[in-house]
Each structure stands twice: as structure tokens, then as C-alpha cells.
């Protein structure tokens, strides 16, 4: 796997430091509240677990699974809800945890969905924000890193369901995904 990586953007230590910082920011933002923290499967599971360990306060955890890539390297433009949350969020404070926000389509879909369901508030925490790829208006409230418009893998991010288990975030060599 490591041989498929062009360069490492963020090491495990840099990711850990960002998770600690974000955990503190989230703790302050939700002081005295019990937010529903919703991880976006599958990419956000490592990140969500790590930031949750740094949040000093109560939270409820749930997951949603949506897809817009369908195994490719760019968004198809259509967001599909694969697995819904189990929690009633009406009147609740919601924190969506994403691995990466690039086009904004998935995030916009979730923001609209949770707003329609009557959430009191909906905020977003993303490890990676890729503003150069943004097509739809969707902003994050808590951001680990702003990243270049390159194809990234590792620490939950995948290409064709591979590379999620890398402990760092790296740029995938273009020949890996252009020859398939």
C-alpha cells in the first residue's frame, strides 16, 4: 500500500494533534449540551473515534451511510442514502462528522435532511476541507486541515475500498486510479 502513495500530507502525529484541537473546540461549543454526533460511514470512523476521545462532555453517537462516488475518483453528482440514522433528532443539536468535504454535495444532502427532520442545530466537523473542489455551498464549523485538490487516501479515506487503514493521509499516485 505504501508504495502506491505519491507523498504523505499529514502524519499520524499531525492527525492526532488536529483531533485533540478539534475535541477541545467541540467541547466548548457543546458545553452543557448532549449533541447527537453522526459519523458519515465509512470514511469518518477513524476520525470520529479519535475526536470523540478528546471531547469532554456527553454525546450520543449514530451513523449514516451515503454514497456519491460509487467506487470512482470523483462524485457522480447523485447522493444516495444507504443507511439512515436510528436517532430521532427533532429538537436536538447535531454534529455531522465527515472525513472530507470536497464537492459539498454529500454534506449539503445531509444538512438539508437533518434540517427537515427538525434538528435544533446542525454543525459539521471535517478532518479535511477541499475548497477548490466545492461545487455546492456547504461549510464546516470545525476543520482539521484545508487540503489541495488531489486524490487523498488513508485514515479512513479510500480508493475502491482500499487504503482506509493507512495511519496517515497521503496523495494516491495517479497511475493507480487512471489505469483502472
Automatic annotation (TrEMBL):
Record CDD domains: PRTases_typeI
Record bears the keyword Magnesium: yes
Pathway membership: Purine metabolism; IMP biosynthesis via salvage pathway; IMP from hypoxanthine: step 1/1; Purine metabolism; GMP biosynthesis via salvage pathway; GMP from guanine: step 1/1
Annotated Phosphoribosyltransferase domain residues: 13-159
Locations listed in the record: Cytoplasm
Signal peptide interval: none
One CC-aspect GO term: cytosol
Gene3D superfamilies cross-referenced by the UniProt entry: 3.40.50.2020
Domain of life of the organism encoding this protein: Bacteria
Pfam families to which the protein is assigned, alphabetical: Pribosyltran (PF00156)
Record-level Gene Ontology MF annotations: guanine phosphoribosyltransferase activity; hypoxanthine phosphoribosyltransferase activity; magnesium ion binding; nucleotide binding
Gene Ontology BP annotations: GMP salvage; guanine salvage; hypoxanthine metabolic process; IMP salvage; purine ribonucleoside salvage
Protein name in UniProt: Hypoxanthine phosphoribosyltransferase
Source species: Lentilactobacillus parabuchneri
